[in-house]
Amino acid sequence: MSRADIRAIALDVDGVLTDGGLWWGAGGEELKRFSFRDIMGVAQGTRAGLVFALISGEASPLVDRFAQKLHIQHVYKGCRDKAQAMRDLAGASGIPVSAIAFMGDDVNDLPAMALAGFSAAPANAHASVRQVVDLVTAAGGGDGAVRELVDTLLAPEK
User: Fold this and answer.
1) Which of 27, 48, 140, 143 has the fewest CB atoms within 10 Å, measured from its CB?
2) Which ranges of the chain have pLDDT less than 70?
3) CA gap 12, 57 in Å, rounded
4) Global pTM?
5) DSSP label at 157?
6) pLDDT digits (tens, 9 = 90+) for 4-17
7) What are the Cα distances from residue 24, in Å, to 13, 21, 32, 61, 126?
8) Largest separation between any pair of C-alpha atoms in the chain
């Protein structure tokens, strides 16, 4: 499948939209850092007609907050079977999995990547993931990797 055929992007959250780190406050609250470059990438992709989804192994309310801020309607949290989440996304959106890109960073993302029409990983993804994807970004997770993926998918093919 050509990059131009991609109509949706599904993103893992921790390690892709974040650097994979977690800050805990004294009161037990979780904090995660998101990059405005990635936020702009999602906004640019949305304006270009791409559908976005978040597929996270964590059930963090921060995933909901990110989705709400960026008007992402397809959110799969606490997900242990990301390949099934991709199939669910395809059914809910009417977009075949072959027209969905997936970006992940670790071994639990590999089954979803195998289904996707295009797969990507941040520069700091696990080596086993970087070896099998269509694109390894120069940027790391939480530091513009999603923006780089969006820019790549929206760029004219040579």
Assistant:
1) 27
2) 1
3) 8
4) 0.95
5) P
6) 899 999 999 999 99
7) 17, 10, 9, 14, 24
8) 52
